[in-house]
Write a structure and sequence with these properties.
The structure holds two protein chains of two kinds.
Chain A (H helix, E strand, L loop, with lengths): L4 E10 L2 E11 L4 E5 L6 H9 L5 E9 L2 E2 L5 H7 L1 E4 L6 E5 H15 L7 H14 L4 H5 L1 E2 L5 H15 L3 E5 L7 H13 L6 E5 L3 H6 L4 E6 L2 E6 L2 H9 L2 H7 L1
Helix pairs in contact in A: 2-3, 6-7
Chain B lengths: L10 H11 L8 H16 L14 H4 L12 H12 L7 E6 L2 E2 L12 E5 H6 L18 H9 L4 E5 L9 E7 L5 E10 L4 E10 L7 E10 L4 E8 L6 E10 L4 E8 L4 E10 L5 E10 L4 E10 L5 E10 L4 E10 L7 E10 L5 E10 L5 E9 L3 H9 L4 H17 L5 H17 L2
Parallel strand pairs in B: 1-5, 4-6, 5-7, 6-8, 7-9, 8-10, 9-11, 10-12, 11-13, 12-14, 13-15, 14-16, 15-17, 16-18, 17-19
Antiparallel strand pairs in B: 1-2, 3-4
Helix pairs in contact in B: 2-6, 7-8, 8-9
Classes of the chains: A alpha/beta, B alpha/beta.
The structure holds adenosine-5'-triphosphate and magnesium ion.
Magnesium ion binds next to α1 of chain A.
Chain lengths: 252, 440
């Protein structure tokens, strides 16, 4: 059986500068992987390349998703196939009501998969349920996408979308940054509720604390564009103790 | 000899468009004198060109080249073709007044009288020797402009609407301009008086019968809104893709008046909408918004001149242009705050979205302030769609065109908010959606 996500020897350039220098990562269904690493080590770059953000030049390696060449697909195709990236910095989209956005996006994905579109009442029911479980008031959904949302609210809105779209691969890029303790727990509960044997998660974080809530099966340390160490959840605790200094040398 | 030519450098040919039409223009005596004077003024000025400051970005000598010959009065075949257009209009439930090739068409119009609303045709009034001041119907005091003069000289028809004091007609009044003759010009002029305390919604549509090409629509609207009046004014310019639409609105507002205008230009090859607004009474508010949706080689110019002549008035202008291919959008907005107009609050914000490298937008907001205790502000931006927003939407499953469409709708949406009537706002939104769908 093929892995859900298979990143092989990935080399990526941005504006003539190589950021990822041969990164490999295998994620199977049902697994939760944490990626940690110093600022600028390339964690967000990896997540962007998997999601299909333009502006990155892949100069080597490959990414397979469910056995298919992910790099050949447009970002929307990837989303429809089950890739979801919860952004480190979700953007604000004034003038596009959150509800309109959610419905358009969900139906676009369903259409791309050849599934029927949701009827308005079914859709509303589903959004209300998910929003309630994440403590997101209905009023927020009437606003423009992320407009006037606090940092924490934006992150919760990302989790809301994840719950709504039911992707098979969830990449969470610093979902914990900007969240207060209660919000973190609520968001983490939302993520945990989505854990299943059919779905995998890649959790990018700087802090062990998030991993107390979302307990990973594997922890990877990235440094200077490579995975320099992989281990179990205890690796995160180790890092909390000793920092990244020991890996900086290895990566160089 | 080409009778259609108006080349201001060639005086002989220039007069022909008028000379040839003169016998067909309604109104004798003083009316004919006003026409002649107006045409003399036009000949003296000539078609506006880029060295005329107000027409800097819309050089009609290049874009229009000549004034087309006056359209013939519509025959039965023309009316039949116009009828098909009427049945396909987006606006429903309005009191419809149809002008075909510049001539009022009672067959296609609502003739049932609406309480508080009187409608006459300009033609009938110009021809009625009992109306002493009939020549005034062609005069304007507000602005000196070659195209206003040309319109006064050539106007064949239009509607003259009176909304009685405190009347609140249940239906919007919808003036529909339909072109059925290719390569011909229609000259229309309508006068709308909304008396003190009355409420009215005026809609103007510019459309063409299938297959009508290369025509010109020249229109003027003179609107008075009395004290305490509440007027909504919607314009929908959906002319044929190779047509010209040159239109002027001259608006005078009373005291405690609400005036909310919205102009949507999506059709036409060359469009100019110039609106002159005068605040004549205190505590009056005006919203003057507009959206241009342009592609191909379209050129659309919106030029607003607001005169805050009295204190305590507020105005807000929101203009958005979406410009694709090698189209060209022009927005000029000038706010004059007169010395007495203390406590004026005037804002203007214009933004253009360029969807291609060849697309062009000129934004020129201007403030002339002669009073010291005022709040005025303006801003202008021009840019492309934000890549990070596009990527966010695409990462959530929206194909490229759909993601763009959603952002474009949001972009124009803000300008459409001033349309208070929900059904009319939906018409504007539907027009934008059709435009977006046609992008493929
Ligand atoms: N568009 C860009 N142009 C130039 N350099 C870029 C660009 N995007 C990323 N980089 C560089 O690539 C490197 C990796 O950035 P990335 O955002 O992936 O790091 P990160 O591991 O997510 O860091 P953090 O923990 O701070 O979020 C950094 O040195 C960054 O400056
Ligand atoms: Mg990052």
């Amino acid at each position: 059986m093929s892995a859900l996500l298979e990143v092989r020897n990935l080399q990526v350039r941005v504006e003539e500068r190589e950021i990822l220098h041969g990164l490999s990562l295998t994620v199977n269904k049902g697994e939760v992987h944490a990626i940690m690493g110093p600022n600028g080590s390339g964690k967000s770059t990896l997540s962007h390349v998997v999601a299909g953000k333009p502006g990155y030049e892949v100069t080597g390696g490959e990414i397979l998703f469910k056995g298919e060449d992910l790099l050949k697909m447009d970002p929307d195709e990837r989303a429809a196939k089950g890739v979801f990236l919860a952004f480190q910095y979700p953007v604000e989209i004034p003038g596009v009501a959150t509800m309109t956005f959610l419905r358009t996006a969900l139906n676009a994905q369903r259409k791309a998969r050849g599934e029927s579109e949701y009827s308005t009442p079914d859709f509303l029911k589903k959004v209300r349920e998910v929003a309630a479980s994440l403590n997101i008031p209905q009023e927020m959904l009437r606003r423009g996408v992320n407009v006037g949302f606090s940092g924490g609210e934006k992150k919760r809105n990302e989790v809301l979308q994840m719950a709504l779209f039911e992707p098979s691969l969830c990449i969470l890029d610093e979902m914990d940054s900007g969240l207060d303790i209660d919000a973190l727990r609520i968001a983490a509960d939302g993520v945990n509720a989505l854990r299943s044997s059919e779905r995998a998660m890649v959790v990018i974080t700087h802090y062990q604390r998030l991993l107390n809530y979302i307990v990973p099966d594997f922890v990877h340390v990235m440094s200077k564009g490579r995975v320099v160490k992989s281990g179990g959840k205890e690796l995160a605790l180790e890092l909390e103790e000793s920092g990244y200094a020991q890996f900086e040398d290895q990566a160089a | 000899m080409n009778l259609a030519l108006v080349k201001p450098t060639m005086d002989g040919a220039a007069s022909d468009v008028f000379t040839v039409a003169r016998d067909r223009l309604p109104g004798k005596g003083p009316v004919a004198e006003v026409r002649q004077a107006a045409f003399d003024d036009f000949i003296q000025k000539g078609l506006p060109h880029r060295r005329i400051e107000e027409w800097k970005y819309t050089d009609l000598r290049v874009l229009l080249r000549e004034v087309a010959p006056l359209a013939a009065a519509p025959d039965q075949a023309a009316l039949d073709r116009a009828k098909e257009v009427v049945t396909s209009l987006d606006v429903n439930g309005a009191h419809r007044l149809v002008l075909v090739d510049g001539t009022f068409a009672p067959q296609l119009s609502d003739t049932t009288s609406e309480s508080g609303v009187t409608v006459q045709t300009l033609r009938a009034m110009l021809e009625n020797a009992d109306i002493a001041a009939r020549a005034d119907l062609l005069r304007t005091s507000v602005a000196s402009d070659a195209m206003i003069s040309l319109n006064a000289a050539m106007a064949t028809d239009g509607v003259v609407i009176d909304v009685a004091e405190n009347a609140a007609p249940g239906k919007p009044i919808h003036i529909v301009h339909i072109a059925t003759q290719s390569k011909a010009a229609a000259f229309t002029r309508s006068l709308v008086k909304v008396a003190n305390g009355a409420r009215a919604t005026l809609i103007e549509s510019f459309v063409a019968a299938d297959g009508t090409a290369g025509y010109q629509a020249h229109d003027s609207v003179v609107l008075w809104a009395g004290n305490g009046a509440d007027v909504q004014h919607i314009r929908l310019v959906e002319d044929a893709r190779d047509a010209a639409n040159i239109a002027t609105a001259i608006v005078t507002l009373g005291e405690r008046t609400q005036y909310r205008a919205f102009n949507l230009t999506s059709g036409g090859a060359v469009c100019r909408y110039q609106a002159f607004l005068r605040f004549g009474g205190q505590n009056t508010h005006a919203d003057v918004n507009g959206v241009s949706l342009l592609n191909g080689r379209q050129h659309a110019d919106t030029t607003l001149v607001l005169d805050h002549a009295v204190p305590h008035c507020t105005s807000n202008e929101v203009f958005r242009a979406v410009v694709d291919d090698s189209a060209h959008s022009v927005f000029q907005g000038r706010i004059n705050v007169h010395p007495d107009a203390q406590k004026t609050d005037a804002r203007m914000m214009t933004r253009a979205l360029l969807l291609s490298d060849e697309a062009e937008a000129d934004n020129k907001p201007e403030l002339e302030i002669f009073a010291d205790d005022v709040q005025c502000g303006h801003g202008a931006t021009t840019g492309a769609l934000d890549d990070s927003l596009l990527f966010y939407l695409r990462a959530r499953g929206l194909p490229e065109k759909e993601a763009q469409a959603l952002l474009i709708q949001a972009f124009v949406g803000e300008a459409m908010e001033s349309i208070a009537d929900e059904a009319l706002r939906d018409v504007a939104i539907a027009t934008a959606e059709r435009w977006l769908a046609a992008r493929g």
